[in-house]
Every structure is written in structure tokens, then in C-alpha cells.
Amino acid sequence: MTTKKSDETPQQDNELEKLRAENEELRRTMRRAEVHRQITGELTAAGARSPELLLKAIGDGDLENAAQDTAAFVEKLRAEYPEQFGQNAGDINGGSGRNFPTLSREQLAAMTPQEIAELDWDEVRACLSA
Q1: Do 49 and 90 touch, CB atoms closer than 8 A?
Q2: Are residues 14 and 68 in the same domain?
Q3: Which structural domain range is residue 19 located in?
Q4: Which of 49, 50, 67, 112: disulfide with 35, CB 3.0–4.6 Å?
Q5: Strand partners, 85
Q6: In a domain, 61, yes or no
Q7: What tens digit of pLDDT does each residue of 50-71 get?
Q8: How many CA atoms lie within 13 A of 128 on its CB side?
């Protein structure tokens, strides 16, 4: 019976070590997720356009250090990637549907009749009525 007990002990120790390693990995994963959420929130509050993109650019290595001093980390990213902070450049349509006159009377006067015939007549009418 003693030999059976001694055979189980190394196996149990091995299993226990595997469980401890798995537990530690899960704790690290949870910590990374917590830090990721914290820094993403800070970047969003600082006006970052793409917080997730910034985090992918820096990788996981700096995240733990960033959690220590988020304000300094945000300023570092603001200095390295200034285009990622500030006002939004607008939507992808960029003015679609707005009626801005693109033709002036002077441009129209300089055109040949053939060039005028190829124009959008609603735009020509808008130019002449302005």
C-alpha cells in the first residue's frame, strides 16, 4: 500500500503544479484585461480617435507600466501619435448631400459652349441665379 501512495504523490504534485500555473496565467489575463479597459477609458477621455488602435500599436509590453501612471502614458502617446488625438476629421461622406456651388460666373464665362453643354444643368442654373 505504501508504494501506491508514493506513486500518487508525484502525480498529485504534478497536477497541483499545473493547476497553480493555470491559475497564475488566468490572473495575468484578468490583470491585462483590467489594465486594457482602464487605459482605453483614459485614452477615450483624452480625445483619442482610436484607443484600440493605439493600444495595438504599443503592444502588451508597456501596458503594465502604463497602468502605474496613466496620465504620463496618455501624454507620451499624444506626443508620439498627435494625429490620433483632437477633433474628428468628419464622417466618410465628407459633405455629401450639401449644396455648395462649385461653379462661378467667371468660370462659366470662360467656358466654350461645348464645355457648358457637358455640365450639370442644375449646377449651371444655381450659378446663374446666385
Answers
A1: no
A2: yes
A3: 10-84
A4: 67
A5: 48
A6: yes
A7: 888 888 877 766 677 777 788 8
A8: 9
CB count, 10 Å around CB of 35? 19
Clarify whether residues 26 and 78 are in a common domain: yes
Residues 55 and 80 occupy one common structural domain:
yes
Query: Residue 78: which residues within 8 A CB-CB, separation 6 or more?
Result: 46, 85
pLDDT of the residue at 15:
93
What does 49-77 look like in DSSP terms, one character per residue? S-HHHHHHHH-STTHHHHHH-HHHHHHHH
Task: Judge if pTM exceeds 0.70.
Answer: no
Domain count within the chain: 2
Contact 61, 32 (CB under 8 A): no
Place of cell 483624452: 46
pLDDT for 61 equals 67
N-terminal to C-terminal alpha carbon distance within the chain: 105
Residue 88 DSSP code: -
